[in-house]
């Protein structure tokens, strides 16, 4: 019997996986997404804020059909500001200020929910753990084995294309590039979201607005001595913060980049915050319930991101440090470009489609990963390849150019295939 639609199996139902589902459905493909999480996340203990660039906002608006949904769920990030913090003087000095930034701030779980709700029903198989895949002898189909987590039953799914959207520790990437390790950046990040929607934090918010007057439309980077923090507001009076701390690689369980924290660790972080940050920011960090630690990794850029009818997208293709606000934007762009390449070439020329996808995305993401790595080292005061390090307290305007988000390679580029 002749198949009517080409079929893709996507492993991973996070931002990349759901974005691929949108892009491929729009290109006329049938899609099944395999995700080990038992059900759609409604709020995520490890989720926090992220920034969406203008191109990604427009891609999302097309997928969501109702652009106001994205506007209603996010806040503007119109300004990108870097400032040097002098905790003794309890003041911050502006190093750079870009008022044409034009990103939007989203809460991870809200963005995930928007993407998921706009998909046709029954596309995502929740509670299904990917186990293995095999490519047919003629290389035209792929069979995936997955375990239903609740019952331990193993089922097979067959399709024309396997998309690995299974994150920075991708087990599909491991099949083609065994032993490839993530690179520890030299620092970890405390993260948290303070929910100020009730009255109990009203005073903290008022104080904060005095110290950070552009709260609600500004991405603030505070640079201290050998450390930096990021801070912006999310919808519904939630304050998103991240604080990067240089330290040896911590011992933690292999399959997560999020570390469990003890109450002693939280207390120590609170004490340190008072020594490093202006009181208003330290207070936000102290009032946040359940802060968590991300161990910050990336990976040297890959040379290949597809093999026969298997292709990598998102963090599986290019684990990156978060300093350029790229990982979610890269993931969504990967999906959009992949969808257009598949539309252009069709399933009968799958090799050409995947080749074009790789040609468009690999040079861009490779440079962005390396730039983000450098940006992190600058802001953390770590030694740079020229053997110097950045000191925010003495930096002159020329030294600060690279701090800006707009210094990211391909910052405002739209790939021609998306025009
Ligand atoms: C719960 C969660 C919260 C996050 N919160 C934030 C945030 O607040 N801010 C931010 O900037 N970034 C956050 N991220 C990371 C962000 O989503 C990614 O860096 C970026 O969007 C690229 O996403 P990705 O889909 O490529 O990878 P990931 O988001 O890492 O998704 C990979 C997905 O693959 C699934 N998976 C892995 N292995 C298997 C398997 N064997 N079988 C089935 N499924 C599998 C995972 O469960 C996961 O859902 C979060 C990621 C997750 C999973």
UniProtKB/TrEMBL annotation:
Pfam families to which the protein is assigned, alphabetical: NAD_binding_8 (PF13450)
PROSITE patterns, per database record: PROKAR_LIPOPROTEIN
Protein name: Oxygenase
Organism whose genome encodes this protein: Lithospermum erythrorhizon (Purple gromwell)
Lineage: Eukaryota, Viridiplantae, Streptophyta, Embryophyta, Tracheophyta
């Amino acid at each position: 019997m002749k198949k009517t639609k080409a079929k893709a199996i996507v492993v991973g139902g996070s931002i990349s996986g759901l974005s691929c589902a949108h892009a491929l459905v729009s290109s006329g493909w049938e899609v099944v997404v395999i995700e080990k999480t038992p059900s759609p996340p409604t709020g995520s203990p490890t989720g926090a804020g992220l920034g969406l660039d203008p191109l990604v906002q427009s891609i999302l608006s097309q997928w969501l059909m109702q652009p106001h949904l994205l506007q209603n769920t996010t806040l503007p990030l119109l300004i990108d500001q870097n400032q040097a913090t002098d905790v003794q003087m309890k003041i911050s000095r502006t190093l750079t200020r870009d008022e044409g930034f034009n990103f939007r701030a989203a809460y991870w779980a809200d963005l995930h929910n928007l993407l998921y709700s706009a998909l046709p029903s029954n596309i995502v198989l929740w509670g299904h753990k990917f186990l293995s895949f095999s490519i047919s002898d003629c290389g035209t189909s792929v069979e995936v084995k997955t375990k239903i987590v609740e019952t331990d039953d193993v089922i097979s799914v067959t399709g024309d294309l396997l998309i690995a959207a299974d994150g920075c520790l991708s087990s599909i990437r491991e099949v083609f590039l065994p032993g490839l390790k993530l690179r520890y950046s030299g620092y970890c990040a405390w993260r948290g979201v303070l929910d100020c929607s009730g009255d109990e934090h009203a005073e903290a918010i008022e104080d904060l607005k005095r110290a950070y007057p552009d709260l609600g439309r500004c991405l603030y980077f505070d640079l201290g001595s050998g450390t930096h923090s990021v801070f912006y507001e999310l919808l519904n009076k939630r304050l998103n913060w991240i604080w990067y701390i240089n330290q040896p690689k911590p011992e933690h369980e292999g399959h997560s980049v999020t570390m469990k924290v003890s109450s002693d660790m939280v207390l120590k972080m609170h004490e340190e915050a008072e020594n490093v940050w202006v009181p208003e920011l330290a207070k936000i960090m102290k009032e946040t319930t359940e802060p968590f630690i991300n161990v910050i990794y990336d990976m040297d850029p890959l040379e290949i991101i597809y093999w026969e009818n298997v292709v990598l997208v998102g963090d599986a293709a290019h684990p990156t440090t978060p300093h350029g606000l790229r990982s979610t934007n890269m993931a969504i762009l990967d999906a959009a470009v992949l969808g257009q390449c598949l539309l252009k070439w069709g399933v009968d020329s799958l090799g050409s489609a995947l080749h074009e996808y790789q040609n468009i995305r690999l040079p861009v993401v490779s440079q962005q990963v390396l730039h983000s790595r450098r940006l992190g080292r600058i802001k953390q005061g770590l030694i740079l390849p020229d053997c110097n390090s950045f000191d925010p307290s003495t930096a002159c305007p020329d030294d600060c150019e690279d701090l800006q988000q707009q210094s990211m390679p391909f910052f405002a580029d739209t790939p021609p295939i998306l025009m």
